[in-house]
Amino acid sequence: MNVQEPRLYFTDPQQLLDIFSELEEQNLSLIQNSQETEEALEEMKQTVKSTKAKMYLYFTFLSLIIFVISVKSTNAIYMIAYITD
What is the pTM of this model? Predict the structure, then answer.
């Protein structure tokens, strides 16, 4: 039985340290990118929330204007009907 010694992928300890350093840099870059993306998402959520609030105010304001116009129109119709009788 001939048992061969396994071949080592790394022949110099510095090779392993270099790979660990590169992986660490990649991980830090990914973490930073993730944090920046999360910040952008939070800003987007705030923008959506603010926009929804503004749209609700505009809707309420326009509904009030429509109501006032319809009341004035109704009163004008009653006044015309009263005058013409």
Answer: 0.59
